[in-house]
Amino acid sequence: MAKVALRVVALTYLLFLLVLPVGIVFWHTFQSGIGPVLDALSTPNAVHAIQLTVLVAGGAVVANTVFGVGTALLIVRHRFLGRRLLDALLDLPIAVSPVVVGLALILVYGRATGAGLWLGERGLDVIFAPPGMILATIFVSLPLVVRAVAPVLEEIGTEQEQAAWTLGASTFQTFRRITLPAIRWALVFGVVLTLARGLGEYGAVAVVSGRLVGQTQTATLFVEERFQNFDQPAAYAMAFLLAAMAIVVLLATNLLRPREAA
Amino acid sequence: MTSATTDQIGAYGGPAAAGRRRTLGSRAGTGLGVGMATLYLSLIVFIPLGAVVLRAGEGGLTGFWRAVTTPETAAALTLTVGASLIVVAVDVVMGTLIAWVLVRDRFPGQRVVDTLIDMPFALPTIVAGLVLLTLYGPASPVGIDLAYRQAGVVVALLFVTLPFVVRTVQPVLLELDREMEQAAASLGASPVTVFRRIVLPNLYPAITAGAALSFARAISEFGSTVLISGNLPFKTEVAAVHIFGQIQSDNIQGAAAESTVLLVVALLVLVGLDLVQRWAARRG
Questions:
Q1: Number of Cβ pairs closer than 8 Å across A and B?
Q2: Which pTM was predicted?
């Protein structure tokens, strides 16, 4: 009896906090059919926002995948001074407010500073331009690949790698033929999380992008700007697209997790 | 069991294990790798964050203090910490309860519910804000209007922090040995007593961890509060939103000072958590 009561309390809480709100957005989006949704998503600004979002998230995924696998190998397979410190500091980006991330990047790479000016004179504007948005996205998603890959690297050990070396494989061959296949699902898991974070990042990108409609506006910024300008159909259409992405990510990570356990 | 333990110790490695094992790359390779990782982290994380703290301290300690005690900043920080404390309290109770139901109960659709818990992590924060505003805004179909109220801020923070306590408590609950509970029950303890005296003490470290993560997330939250709170100064404007406004109006020093407060609080919480966990691990 008590069990049922607890179940009811938990599920009611989740219903009102999670299920109903998300459900109602889907309902709201398709209130007048699928036509208006497609129309709203095919305006030039919407298309540009989607393209820019994919570019920014993609850039961050590439950078953090290379860094993530490299750093995971470093902290699991190597012993060096400051290893534990590096390990601890990797989680720092998660604790920083997205707005603070944006401010931090502006202070270093904005045109008002030496570094920003120097880069700007060489034709590379960072702030209020895609490079800064990629940097911001890298920042907020930084530990995700490392934290997905490191435990698996630890678990597989080095026996197979050593066997490969003994048989004359080079470092690169060993990595590609032995290590990479062993960590591939963990890597995919980390990449999916990074991609989701990148596609959905709002605060950090809002600060460094300058939010120029049709120029530095990503999908999440589009949702906010359209909503504030009373264009609800467009705001809901893009929000639906992002929510659908979130659900795909949820299902994908759910599928990937048991593989690790097996 | 013993061999697994030794293997594990081997894998984590002491100096002896490291010396015995040939690892990817040479010593020079290690040096290069450490250098590259440090450079990457420095350019993207450390130098920018350092710049924030430096900028905050530009006017000296008095300048910093003046910046974080302006009425609007003080109101934003007070609201942020207050709302976050409420949110953490609710998260601790509801998170533990949800974890309990997911582990100890069986009902149809349980796996779906289990998957849904992570929804707030996957959903972009601005969408979360829009989602909540749709249900609990001026046009609320259920007749609850929390828009432009502090309660709206609390609901937004509850949404984005939902998974933390659930996901830290759940695995511990799953691993928990049921024998102690059965023994207590057979000696006449009521279910409430068993939970309070046997289960709960085992969950404390996990609950603390979840609460700390929730709190760190709540004080830094931006996107989900933007739409539902209306960002009314002195009323519903949280710290992150206020920092954003200061950046927009070019009050960079004020923004940096307030950011530094958030950074320090988040760091203190995470370091405190680390200490608690080490203490719990030592205590066994």
A1: 254
A2: 0.90
